[in-house]
Amino acid sequence: MKFKKAIIIGATSGIGKALAFKLAREGYALGLTGRRGGLLQELQCALIQPGVDAGGVVVSIKEMDVAKTEEAQQLFKELVAEMGEVDLVVICAGVGLSSTRPSWQIDRKVIEVNVLGFVAMMTAAAEYFCKKGNGHIVGISSVAAFLYHGSSSAYPASKAFVMNYMKGLRLKLKRIQPKIYITDIRPGYVDTPMVEHIKFKPFLITAEKAADLIYKAITKKKRSAYVPWRTGVAANFYGFLLRVWPDFFERFLK
Question: Residue 84, Cβ neighbours under 10 Å: how many?
Fold first, then answer.
């Protein structure tokens, strides 16, 4: 059986970290990236040490800031070269910043990471898989793409971009190389540092549970998957209410 290899962009915490352990347990060799080199090294040690959860897998790491797009693309190519070949690329890198007042600095950071950084990694992965002839790209959007709120106008907008970008890229690749799959993962509330400040978190799940659900979506090569599925129902319904009766339902948004 061919040894499977995966790259996770943004693996030092949250969903990315949990997914690293999940893929390791499923027999993947891993290439992991993140901005914090120390945390990357700790994760690498945890994964390669026999008897520690996944235990004994092959792990390569690259310190990377996706907001530095050209540098990040070059580091991606170097990581692929080190691994020899890659079957799966999962893009988890993202930030969720909020402010009660308009802030160009905050909105720019969100856009640099969630939009420009995301596209840089998506295109790097797509170009590689086009040359290889097959592959699977997984992007993390969010049910926030269906909503909006005053404390963070950039975050839901960035996730709506991510969602629609993957739809368009999937269509483009289908015409060029139909053996490349794209899966859009749409999480709701996952117990990670990004949602610690939020009080009301319906359908909250652990990062480990999210990783299990994401892996199922990967194995089925699904176009999209809500994690968990209940959040998709709730977000789509509330999004519908906001479109039909915005003046009434906006009073419940922060």
Answer: 9
Number of domains in the chain: 1
CA angle 230, 20, 196 (to 5 degrees): 50
CA distance 35 to 79: 15
**Domain range enclosing 153:** 5-252
Instruction: Quote the CA–CA distance of 217 and 205 in Å, as a whole number.
Output: 16
Q: Which residues are part of the catalytic machinery?
A: 155
Q: Which of 42-51, 63-72, 116-125 has the lowest mean pLDDT?
A: 42-51
Mean pLDDT, the chain, integer: 90
d(CA 212, CA 251): 36
Q: 169 vs 26, 137, 228, CA distance in Å?
A: 28, 11, 24
**CATH number of the domain that residue 202 is part of:** 3.40.50.720
